[in-house]
Structures are given as C-alpha cells and as structure tokens.
Design a protein that fits this description.
- The protein is α/β, with parallel strands linked by helices.
- The protein is built from ten helices and nine strands.
- Strands 3-2-1-7-8-9 form a six-stranded parallel β-sheet, sandwiched between helices. Strands 5-4-6 form a three-stranded antiparallel β-sheet, with helices on one face.
- Bound molecules: 2'-O-acetyl adenosine-5-diphosphoribose.
- The site of 2'-O-acetyl adenosine-5-diphosphoribose has 26 residues, from α1.
C-alpha cells in the first residue's frame, strides 16, 4: 500500500462470530470456558506445551471448517472498489478476511496458519496439527509454537498501524469489546489525528464513548449496510 489508507478498520472476534467462531468475552466465550493464563501466555506454554498446542489445533480446525460471512465479504468488496484506500487491522487469528478476498490485512495478534520457533524465531506455515516434539525446520529444536501473540507479548506491526491511524480520515471498529490494549486505544489515536470514528458492535464496548457514532447490531447486518453507504 502506498501512502496512508483513508479508512482503517479494526476487527475483533465479533466479526467472525456469525461464521461460528467463538468470541472471547461473551457469556459462552472462549475465556469463560478456558483459562487464558494457561493457554495464551508464554508461561502457560512453558508449563504445558501440549495443552496450549491442542487448544490452538482445535481453533485452527474450527477456522478451517468455517467460512467468511457477509461482513467479511462486504469489507473485501470495499477494498476492491476503493483500491489502496482501506486497511484492515485485525485482532483475529483466523484467515476469514483473506478467504473473503481482502488483501490489505494486518494480523496484529498473529495467525493460526503460521508457526513460530520459540528458540530461533523462524516462521513457517503451520501444519493442521502441531505437536510439542515437532522440530523447527530452521534450527531443529522442538520449540515450535503457534505464531500468535499472547498476553504479555507485543502485537505485530505496531509502527505501520500507528502510521495508518495517524493518516486516516475514517476509523471503524467492528466486533471488538475494547478490553484489550493496545487495540482498545486505536480510537483515541485516530480521533486525535482528526479521523471520524464509528463503532459497529453487538453491544456497547468499553470504549464506545470515544467514538463519534456507535451502531449496535450484528456484524452481518451492520457491515454490509455501512459499506453500501461508503460506496453510494
Ligand atoms: P471479545 O470476545 O472481547 O469481544 C467480542 C465483541 O464482539 C463483543 O463486544 C461482542 O459484543 C461483539 N459481538 C459478538 N457477536 C457479534 C456479532 N455477531 N456482530 C457484531 N459484534 C458481535 O473479542 P475481541 O475484542 O476480539 O487476544 O478480543 C480481543 C483480544 O482478546 C483477542 O484478539 C484475543 C483475546 O484475548 C489474544 O488472544 C492475544
């Protein structure tokens, strides 16, 4: 992408909810059923790598068996109609934006489809099932982990994201609870830079007050309607 995108869209688990992938903090969400400190921290991985890999193997399988929904497709259509003007920053580790056709996507929390060597930092395509004894293809050590960002780790590509937020005219957050930083602070950065800020979510988030406008409803209704407005 050359120059700053006019529109930055931040997506969270809520955009993939209607594809059948669970959110984290809803009543039946992943973090209500699983302990994030055991399954999404470097310490949890060091204590029980098999449990952590199993958790992500199951999520990888769920993502593979689901598909993009109308909200993902609407964002892909927006990019096609306005090439170079849209950047999606997603907290999601699934690949539903790409499978809908989006190309300008930053996975700030990593991707289920990628593996990372905790020993040497090499990255490669994750097999469907990762096991603790799998050797790293670069250094050979059995230290492979999913290439996802855990609590206590720094999200990816933060400089690029900051530059995009500083230069955009419009910031839209979709399906995210605003409880996890630094993503929860993006609205403040975009607003300070003069962008109009819109939240599309099932319910008000922790940071709804910071947006110029909040629309409540399902992503599959709200996102296609908003895209139609932008393209009208
Ligand atoms: P959360 O589970 O915290 O929030 C999901 C949001 O989506 C909530 O505000 C819901 O109201 C909303 N939602 C649910 N269904 C929806 C629908 N059909 N349409 C629109 N909105 C809907 O998920 P995130 O905000 O994405 O990080 O969580 C952020 C990060 O916390 C994740 O990336 C993950 C997690 O811990 C890591 O694992 C590092």
């Amino acid at each position: 992408m050359t120059g700053a995108p006019a529109i930055v869209v931040l997506t969270g688990a809520g955009i993939s909810a209607e594809s059948g992938l669970g959110t984290f903090r809803d009543t039946d969400g992943l973090w209500a059923r699983f302990d994030p400190m055991r399954l999404a921290t470097p310490e949890g991985f060091a204590a029980d790598p098999a449990a952590v890999l199993d958790f992500y193997n199951a999520r990888r399988a769920n993502a593979r068996n689901s598909g993009p929904n109308a909200a993902h497709f609407a964002l892909a259509r927006l990019e096609t109609c306005k090439p170079g003007e849209l950047l999606i920053v997603t907290q999601n580790v699934d690949d539903l934006h790409e499978r809908a056709g989006s190309r300008a996507v930053i996975h700030m929390h990593g991707e289920l489809a990628r593996a990372l060597c905790a020993a040497c930092g090499a990255r490669w395509e994750a097999p469907p099932v990762m096991r603790p004894e799998d050797p790293c293809p670069a250094c050979g050590r059995p230290a492979t982990r999913p290439d996802v960002v855990w609590f206590g780790e720094i999200p990816y590509r933060m400089e690029e994201i900051a530059a995009a937020l500083a230069g955009c005219r419009s910031f839209v957050a979709i399906g995210t609870s605003g409880q996890v930083w630094p993503a929860a602070g993006f609205v403040e950065e975009a607003r300070a830079a003069g962008a109009r800020c819109l939240e599309l979510n099932l319910e008000r988030s922790e940071v709804s007050d910071r947006f110029h406008e909040v629309r409540l409803g399902r992503a599959t209704d709200l996102v296609p309607a908003w895209v139609a407005e932008v393209l009208a």
